[in-house]
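Module 6 notes. Inverse folding takes a fixed backbone as the condition and produces residue identities as the prediction. Think of it as a translation problem where the source language is geometry and the target language is the twenty amino acids. Below is one complete input and output pair. Work through it position by position during the lab.
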């Protein structure tokens, strides 16, 4: 069981480093209040429909995947320990 815990800890560190890199690569959302007043990007616009295909959309998707992996690994490590 020690070997599994060590492997999971190493995997957790790698996931953390990956999350840090992905978050740092994302652009900031500086729209703030002006976007909510002006309406921002509507749900029916071309950009809203294809936002998952952009680089920013891909980064968000991979960040969510790594976040889910982080939570699962942390939960398993807590159960093992």
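Target side of the pair, the amino acids:
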């Amino acid at each position: 069981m020690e070997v599994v815990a060590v492997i999971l800890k190493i995997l957790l560190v790698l996931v953390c480093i990956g999350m840090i890199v992905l978050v740092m690569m994302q652009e900031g959302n500086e729209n703030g209040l002006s976007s909510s007043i002006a309406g921002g990007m509507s749900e029916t616009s071309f950009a809203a429909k294809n936002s998952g295909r952009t680089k920013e959309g891909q980064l968000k998707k991979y960040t969510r995947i790594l976040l889910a992996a982080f939570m699962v690994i942390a939960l398993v490590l807590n159960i093992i320990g």
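Reference fact for the lab report: The longest helix spans residues 55-80.
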